[in-house]
UniProtKB/TrEMBL annotation:
It comes from the Eukaryota. Pfam families: Ribosomal_S16. Keywords: Mitochondrion, Ribonucleoprotein, Ribosomal protein. This is Small ribosomal subunit protein bS16m. Belongs to the bacterial ribosomal protein bS16 family. It is found in: Mitochondrion. GO terms for cellular component: mitochondrial inner membrane; mitochondrial small ribosomal subunit. The keyword Ribosomal protein applies. InterPro entries: Ribosomal_bS16, Ribosomal_bS16_dom_sf. GO terms for biological process: mitochondrial translation. Coiled coil: none annotated. One of its GO terms (molecular function) is structural constituent of ribosome.
């Protein structure tokens, strides 16, 4: 047998796991640590994020295992921030031991899947205080 054929036979387990049945093109290793994080897309001054499952120690722009939601932080014409999440797949990955990043925890807290993240309360309090300060300055003028 030639050397190339022997190398290809050794790579069969990797090739079998190369494409996970769900969406995404990243390799799936069943025993490695997974994380649910935001994957940035879009362009300058117009960010758009996908909520994805990735290997925990991979770079941000490596291929993902599965996309489980989207997040658009820019308000639309109705002043709404759009989020779509697949709760069944999130429940599956968390049950499999996936770590959830802090921004995704904040989104899941606001959506009601998790308790509201404590930093979300602090952020809302600061924004409310800043709005009240602007209103009092506008009244003084």
């Amino acid at each position: 047998m030639s050397r190339n054929v022997i190398e290809n036979v050794k790579m069969l387990p990797r090739i079998r796991n190369a494409l996970f049945p769900a969406s995404g093109t990243g390799q799936y290793y069943p025993r490695s640590a997974k994380t649910i994080r935001l994957f940035k897309q879009g362009c300058t001054n117009r960010p758009f994020y996908q909520v994805v499952v990735m290997e925990r120690r991979k770079a941000q722009y490596e291929p993902v295992i599965e996309q489980i939601g989207t997040y658009d932080p820019m308000p639309n014409s109705n002043n709404e921030i759009l989020v779509s999440l697949n709760y069944e797949r999130i429940r599956h990955w968390i049950g499999s031991g996936a770590h959830v990043s802090r921004p995704v925890l904040e989104i899941l807290g606001i959506s009601g899947f998790y308790p509201i993240y404590p930093k979300t309360y602090m952020k809302a309090w600061r924004m409310r205080a800043a709005d009240e300060k602007k209103e009092t300055e506008a009244v003084k003028e």
